[in-house]
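If you are new to this repository, start here. Below is one unmodified record pulled from the training split, so you can see the exact layout before writing a loader.
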Amino acid sequence: MIRIVLCDDEHKVQEEVSEYIKKYVETKPNLKLEIICFDSVKGLRGALDAGNSFDIFILDIYIGQEMGNHFARELRKRGIESPIIFLTTSLEHAPESFEMGTLRYLLKPIDHKKLYEAMDVAILQVEKMLEQFIRIKTENGVESIDARKIMHSECHGHYQYITLENGKQFRVRKTVSELFNALAQQGGFIRVGSAYIINLRKIKNVSTSEVHLYNDINISIPRGKHVEIKKAFWDFQYEG
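And here is the target side for that same chain:
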């Protein structure tokens, strides 16, 4: 099931776009989509804070008193890499929007053919992103974990404790090297010292002594390693 969130403060637009997407699904018999609508950034932000996740974001540029492109920047800072499609009456903010990897920028009134083209590309991206799930045997059984949502892991004895962006934690009986080898296949992970593996997507900044993550966790950097870690962080940001 692919979850699409539509955030627009005009209910008429919500109804129109939702109807277009329903007709789009009718042409794809094997595709299962769910559409969730919000009329404010505040409501959508609250849903994300509550642990909800969405695969595709369709955002109006002007959502009440807030700007959709500013919220898109917030999504990227949260580490959410889902495709973003903007709906707007003006091209004024297009350059800034594309800096955040925006998939499409569609002018109102919406041309359903262009929306369908955007949906085709978005779904391909989502399917590719789903390939980044890894299966790990935990104490509660085999779990499918989205590698992009891992904040970090920490070693305690014979176990690795994996922490996700929503605070959920898994205990895995593996060595640091075994877990790192599994995560490294997805890209975007770095070892820090002998106990930690950190998701480069979740780093807020790197000082000379600590790595600062977006969940307000600070991890000490071994002496003489901050240049190497900072370089890995900025190289990943540049490549991204």
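Two things worth knowing about this chain: The helical segments are 11-26, 41-49, 68-77, 94-98, 112-130, 176-184, 226-239. DSSP finds seven helices and 17 strands in the chain.
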